Amino acid sequence: MGSLVKFSSAQLDEIVAGVKISGVRCLWVGRDDTCRLQVVLNDLGLAVPWCDQLKVLSHSSIGGFLTHCGWNSTLEAAFVGVPMLAFPIFGDQFTVSKQVVEDWMEIKQGYKSEREELIKRAKQVEDIFQVAIAKVLMLSSRISHIEHIQDIFIESMKL
């Protein structure tokens, strides 16, 4: 949860208990607490002292990110499009959290409706192309049939 702030042992135990109860598999970067975290998480997750956060967030198996809303973490998660669960601790993290939860969500909702409209239009274009292709194939079949009749006619003229 950031480089400057550490949770008390009781706070950390509560958060880990919540993660455990959720049953969600996780990767937990715990700095000094990795051994204790790994014992508690057991096979539900992996606790490590450090990771390349951007690489981890970019992985297709990542479904969400519990973040303290430090600016760099927030930008990395937003960059790769990972949903964030905001957990600010102090300072500007509360402002960043508000921005993520309230302001960016409005943008995402607008983007979502625009995206849905584009998907709808793309489906309409796809339907039009499918009808056009079907007509071309039918026409091609008729031309082929006409060419076949023409070949029969030419062969019969040779007799």
Automatic annotation (TrEMBL):
<dbReference type="InterPro" id="IPR002213">
    <property type="entry name" value="UDP_glucos_trans"/>
</dbReference>
<dbReference type="GO" id="GO:0035251">
    <property type="term" value="F:UDP-glucosyltransferase activity"/>
</dbReference>
<keyword id="KW-0328">Glycosyltransferase</keyword>
<dbReference type="Pfam" id="PF00201">
    <property type="entry name" value="UDPGT"/>
</dbReference>
<dbReference type="InterPro" id="IPR035595">
    <property type="entry name" value="UDP_glycos_trans_CS"/>
</dbReference>
<protein>
    <submittedName>
        <fullName>Uncharacterized protein</fullName>
    </submittedName>
</protein>
<keyword id="KW-0808">Transferase</keyword>
<comment type="similarity">
    <text>Belongs to the UDP-glycosyltransferase family.</text>
</comment>
